[in-house]
Amino acid sequence: MTHNQDTAKSAQLFTRAQACIPGGVNSPVRAFRGVGGNPVFFKSGNGAWLTDADGNRYIDYVGAWGPLILGHSHARVRAALHNQLDLGTAFGAPTELEVQLAERICQLMPSVESVRLVNSGTEATMSAIRLARGYTGREKIVKFEGCYHGHVDSMLVKAGSGALTLGAPDSLGIPAATAQQTFVVPYNDADALALLFATSGKEIAAVIIEPVAGNMNCVPPLPGYLKQVREITEKYGSLLIFDEVMTGFRVALGGAQQLYNIKPDLTTLGKVIGGGLPVGAFGGKKAIMDMLSPIGPVYQAGTLSGNPLAVTAGMVVLDEISKPGFFDALTQTTATLLQGLQSLADQYAIEFTTTQVGGMFGCYFNKSPAISTFAQVMQSDVERFKRYFHLMLDQGIYLAPSAFEAGFVSSAHGANEIKLTLEAAEKCFATLKQ
Ligand SMILES: *Cc1c(COP(=O)(O)O)cnc(C)c1O
Hints:
Blueprint: H1 8-20, E1 42-46, E2 49-52, E3 57-60, H2 75-87, H3 96-108, E4 114-118, H4 121-136, E5 140-144, E6 157-159, E7 167-169, H5 176-179, E8 182-185, H6 190-200, E9 204-209, H7 225-235, E10 239-243, H8 255-259, E11 266-269, E12 280-284, H9 286-289, H10 308-321, H11 326-347, E13 353-357, E14 360-364, H12 374-378, H13 382-394, E15 397-398, E16 407-408, H14 415-433
The structure holds pyridoxal-5'-phosphate.
């Protein structure tokens, strides 16, 4: 493993990038603002490994922020893409490929009776929210503090300061009137949701939730919580949208809804179903989905939606993860990594805790032994995380550059990668302790 790499090329590229791309990046968290320093520019990936522009190698726990459940440059995905390249990359007309992917999604997620393909997770949540409003004839949406649903205007909202939980814009450029259509309530707090519904339930079109919160690090739902959310929404005739853009085909073959045995009305998907190409999807009950254009009055469209290349990659991924034992192995690899990290932290008496659901995990420099709320997440020692991040990076371990992002393990991570990661972590914890 390389140590204290030379990253001169990355630094040069970042200088060039900053001259022509805002902040030098095409998505903000890539910029390393959460950890300090310059982002690493990559030129290739293979299995669990990344190679940067300077030729340094890293074990990757970001996996392109979730999609790469089979690791980088998987042989079957590559072969299928090569084949499709020769047949054409876009037709702007229906193909058998998109039907196959839709059939497969419906088969793996029984709550999804009908599904529309889009190009990103953001597009999926934006469309699902519009559909929920169109279907119910109501305008208010409920989201949870710390959950992320893409950069949709009505979702870039934080809890307002008043007694009510009506949202305030969390970005410039979002009209206050839009933010006020969104209620923000705490995650893993069914009483808070019930209270909101008691006063405003009849105005609420939908509740959108990450069934495992993966954008405030990784916070699993408390036992029974999702069932309560389902019951409350049902009682008031509001739709329940599971945003499984991250958890879908990641925490279990049938997503979080299978793991926790909850049937949402609508589900949004992305990340894994694109196999590293841009795909999103939203689907659910046929009676709701049939409200969409061209057969219904809710408009939704996309020039490249159902793109043959993207759909081809997605099909191969769903095929591979459907093989018996896939999720058991992924879950076991992830558990081995986390147990190793925890025992090292304990050995060095560092306040540290982890969470895991399938192939998705969280690591916290935090006093709380069990993390279940946004407030607890916010009490994490961010300064310590920053040091940990850079110490790991210097030893060739690429973690998400923020204390508030989930980590991902792929099926390409084997015993050797875990061993190397734990060896690096041991040095980190020893240094952190000093
Ligand atoms: C990543 C993510 C999104 C947004 O998807 P993009 O493809 O980045 O637009 C939405 N919801 C959740 C839960 C996500 O993790």
